[in-house]
Amino acid sequence: MKNLGILALSVVMLTGCAEKNIEVAEDADAAIAAVETAAPTSRFSEYMWCDAGPDFSAETYAELTAAWNEVGSRATHQVSAAFSIRPKFETDRYDGMWVNIWPSVEARDAGWAEWVENEAEAFGTKFNNVLACDPAKRFLFESFTATAQVQQWDPSDLHQVSYSFCSLKEGKTQEDGGLVAANFAEWIALKRTEGLGTKYMSYLLMPTFDPETIDGTAASYQFVRADAWADAEEQAADMAAWQEDGNVARDMSDATYDCQNFDFDLRPIKNPAI
Fold first, then answer.
1. DSSP state of 203
2. Residue range 83-126, pLDDT digits in tens
3. CA 81, CA 83: separation in Å to the nearest integer?
4. 165: closest CA among 250, 223, 235, 228?
5. What's 120-134 look like in SS3?
């Protein structure tokens, strides 16, 4: 798994290129500082399948997340961030997912042990009719930020995220993926000088489990790329540019990877500390 992680980091297609500085020009209306895509820092993203209960509503869900954040603020082992995603496609596997971002596997294990010992019973009694997450459907990925946004997102917006479950095509190598990454780095840098892609970010997810052993959202894959936008308008503009004829970066990506793509709405639950 570790070797595959090293491979995937070097062949990311829509995520920028590690260890490379990308110069971004200043926009006339908003000064955008140069974006540095540094060697990625590893975190752990835990995706939990959840179903809405009979008492679910916008109000009860807001109450649940507020209570969860209050409990979490007292915890010794805290998540770094959390968000929810809701599929924009039909599936009977889940209504949505709760995603916890952990600084390490050790923190995740200690955090869950603390939760079960001190909070789970009371919290479940109060909120299981609002939202129930299946403990048997928790999937942990090692994650690496690949492309950071250069403008802040409005947390009140409905964010968008697209997950691409990918594998190298037969005959393609790590070197092919490196060329894809370099071409994307050039493309996103250029588009940011034109005012596009400033509220786009991406990260790489490496499964810590064997994807072939579960009935997951996607079939067999080597890694997952997550492309995220502040809102649907930003996503549409960036994707229109990506699909333009003559985009060498896109053509190289399509020739190098087989991917299954799934779109979700995303809302923050706990924003990372700045």
1. E
2. 999 999 999 999 999 999 999 999 999 999 999 999 999 999 99
3. 7
4. 223
5. HHHHHHHHCCCEEEE
Domains in the chain, ordered, with CATH? 1-274 (3.30.70.100)
Q: Please count the other Cβ atoms lying within 10 Å of the Cβ belonging to residue 79.
A: 21
34: Cβ–Cβ under 8 A, 6 or more apart, which residues? 21, 22, 23, 24
pLDDT digits (tens, 9 = 90+) for 184-230: 989 999 999 999 999 999 999 999 999 988 878 887 899 999 999 99
- Judge contact between 36 and 113, C-beta under 8 A: no
CA distances from 238 to 21, 27, 223 (A): 21, 17, 23
The DSSP letter of residue 22 is E
Asked whether the beta carbons of 69 and 90 are under 8 A apart, the reply is no
pTM of the model: 0.83
Letter string b/e over residues 158-184, b meaning 16 or more CB atoms within 10 A of that residue's CB: ebbbbbbbbbbeeebeeebbeebbebb
Q: How far is CA 66 from the centre of its chain?
A: 22
